[in-house]
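User: Last request for today: this protein with fe (ii) ion, please.
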Amino acid sequence: MPNFTAADLVELFRKELELCKVTEGEELVILAEPSSRSEYVEAAFAAGLALKANVIQATLPGGSPVPLPSSRTGSGAGLTSLDDSPLALSLLQGADLVLDLTNEGFIHTQTLGKILDAGTRMLFVADPPEVLARNLPTPEDKALVQAGAALLKAGKELRVTSPSGTELVADLVDSHPGFQCGIADDPGRWDHWPSTMVLAWPKTSHGRIVLAPGDILLPFKTYVRDEVTLTIEDGRIADIAGGGDARMLQLFFEDANDEEARFLSHMGWGLMTRADWFSMALYDRESLMGMDARGLAGNFLFSTGPHPFMNRHTYNHLDIPMRGCTVEIDGRAVVDHGRLLDLGNL
Ligand SMILES: [Fe+2]
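Assistant: Here's the final one, the structure of the complex with fe (ii) ion:
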């Protein structure tokens, strides 16, 4: 953890908690598991006290039956110990803000809804300190992603093309557009620091996605080396063609042996202007969630597997951010050849 002292981390968490509108007398629960980054737990605790919040640290037994033997995948089931502890669940439901410092978070779990429905706001933090600091959100980020989500909500069709041959059309009707901005400041809101993205959950899509060298496969945290062509029929990956990377994806779906895994999940674009596409090449994979890749400004991010609005709850989840795509909503570009357009000028 070069260049980050304990004081630096406390200051970093204090800024983030202020963005999340943590105020004097609020109930702040710092949720951890035994293998959580202890320096984050300590820094968040100190930051919460500095803001005069009522701080409670809760450490639950670790363990999450993720389909992949890795932590920080973004696809996990969260801590199953929470499912077995009504007391812990009620603590989180009673909090104003839960700072989730577990390794996997509760991103695609049904437990998350039980916490948020109580009005609790929740912020998940898993990336290394340099990644957090570089991508510390600003209040302006929220307005930008809200504008993007409004465009999706008003739209009928999302169209994605790329120089390598991507030609995908997704249905935006009833696609539950949303956003992440790295700030959990509204009651019942879940967010992820760092993240700045707009996304929707299309119920169907058709066409072809062609992954190009340099695109990224998550949670494997690898860069695509050779072109992969995915044929999409009615929101499902019907065929995978290409070389070594295509074979890897074919094996992933074979091993998953899960029909839900082959359906497309959320898709959208990134707005995180200080994200570093190459951080994954420089860090130990276990230490990164990979939000630089997911949130990079001007990427197109699509995913496979879980789809809460189609009642699919599989944990076999791929996030695949792509570079150089053009993303259009009803013919209006929001990303042009990988360049994020200013929504104010549309
Ligand atoms: Fe995802």
